[in-house]
Amino acid sequence: MPSTARAVTVLGQEFQVRTFDIPDPAPGSLLLRQELGGICGTDLHNWQKGIASETLMGHEAVGIVAGLGKGVSEDYLGNPLKEGDRVVFHPRNSSVAYGFRGTDQPFSGGFSEYIYMTDPQNCWVKFDGPAKVGVLAEPFAVATHSVMRAKMEIGDTVIVQGSGAIGLLTAAAARASGAGKVIVIGGPPERLELAKRLGADVTVDIGVYRDVTERQKVVLAETRKGEGADVVFECAGFLPAFPEGLEYVKTDGTFVEVGHFVDIGTIAVNPNLHFLRRNLRLEGIWGSRYNHFVRGLTVLERNEYPFADLVSHVLPLEGVADGFDALNGTYQLDGETVVKIAVSGAA
């Protein structure tokens, strides 16, 4: 193992690839050789606002065990763990999550060549699947949490607003949980084609139906009797999507807000029309917990859906800025539509 390795830091909106000493794993800790680190919408929104202090970002990651601290012999589930095993981990903990820490904790983020896991109550799990699926473990835990919070029932009509990674994974989670019909609203067409492969029955392209009133008619026509969906998941993270989504919920239905993990402002809704008259249940989910993470892994490891195809682009550490720029602009990179961008420390 080398004595130093590289990691990406960000300050304001400027990225820098820095070199740090690789630590010897302390008792109870785990050192991973990073394979992939996903760029999340939360990363993007925080970057858009500007990062106040130099930070090692990246909270969606998968890696290979490079070193185990004293006392570490198994994963969170009690499976035996050894060097060379592939591992995914939940970033949440009692203090600051992995991917949101400063340079005083080198290799605490996923945009790096190594990841050093030091928290006393880590949730790391040996993963039996390809790296491109493993890197989706954290966002799929969010999708799992969303579907569980919705209390979906078999045969429900489901609408998912947004065809980014969270929206696509939520569509897959809803289908795996027994949804009778899944409708995905989003774009561009390449993402919507992938949505169908991940379990969507119907897709509605916002590039084709730009007028909200026209789009609403098209969407509601796909629901039973045109009355709306049993469950609507707002995964777009776009403020106007919130009141639009409320219009898609049937009487006694459920609306789950998933997309706004970063405060990007406020928008008006009508409590009487949007909530009371529909007897609507409103749920908001904040990330995920360890139980959602573990439950989601069982679905990812079965790999019954083309999860790996969500990772449309893999960039080297030096290409992080290109990834953020693409997600902040045209959603195009190298002439192809972006879905999920991952950074590889091994590239």
User: How much of the residues is beta strand, in percent?
Assistant: 25-35%
Structural class: alpha/beta
By CATH, the topology of the largest domain is Quinone Oxidoreductase, Chain A, domain 1
Q: Biggest β-sheet, characterized?
A: 7 strands, mixed
Helix content: 25-40%
Please give the domain count. Answer: 2
Indicate the mean pLDDT.
95
Q: Please give the radius of gyration in angstroms.
A: 20 Å
Oligomer: single chain
Count of helical segments? 10
The first-to-last residue Cα distance is 17 Å
- What best-fitting shape do the alpha-carbon axes yield? globular
Number of strands: 19
Order of helices and strands: EEEHEEEEEEHHEHEHEHEHEHEHEHEEE
What does this structure look like?
- The chain contains 10 helices and 19 strands.
- α3 crosses α4 (165-176) and α3 packs across α9.
- The strands form 4 sheets. Strands 3, 5, 6, 8, 9, 16 and 19 form a 7-stranded mixed beta sheet that branches. A 6-stranded parallel beta sheet has the order 12-11-10-13-14-15, sandwiched between helices. Strands 2-1-4-7 form a 4-stranded antiparallel beta sheet, with helices on one face.
- It is 26% helix and 31% strand.
- The chain folds into 2 domains: 4-130 and 303-344, Quinone Oxidoreductase, Chain A, domain 1; 139-284, Rossmann fold (3-Layer(aba) Sandwich), CATH 3.40.50.720.
- By secondary structure, it is an alpha/beta fold.
